[in-house]
Design brief:
185 residues; alpha+beta; six-stranded antiparallel β-sheet; 4 helices; 12 strands; 27% helix
Amino acid sequence: MNENDQHETQKPVTKASRKKEMSRRQFLTYTLGGSGGFLAAAMLVPMVRFAVDPVLKPKVSSGWIKVVEANKIGDEPKSFKFQIHQVDGWYESDPELEAWIAKDANGNIFALNPTCKHLGCTVTWAGDAAHKDQYACPCHGAHYTKEGKQLVVAPAPLDQYDVKIESGFVYVGQLHPNVIAKTAK
């Protein structure tokens, strides 16, 4: 058999028959690409879930915090500290907060947040000798009435806590913009 006979017995390779076959290079490309994609997805799914999980959890409204006995509240504001349980994403803490609690002219108990609305310093009751019956900010001289209405420097009144009296105790709830300062004289 000569070389010409060998070439004649082989089938001619056409484009149609090449398309049906997969080369080794294509096979390795598909196999490695698929395996790499699967491994990348296997690594990314837990990371995405970790990042999105706090967003998917239902929001829990803060409850009521017992602060002080109601009979200890007078006409002059007093400072009371209390702790709340706080969850920020995955970080849980129990920060100590403060409220100035007093009775208004009608005998209703109210609680104010001592954070100055000017720059965030902490105000104190009768903290300035020139303004005895006012909240005063030691940082930049802001002054507030007993009900938290701004007098000097501050752009807004002190924030107010929701308050409820139950079983002889004062409970504070959510913090919100002050509504009693608008009705006070």
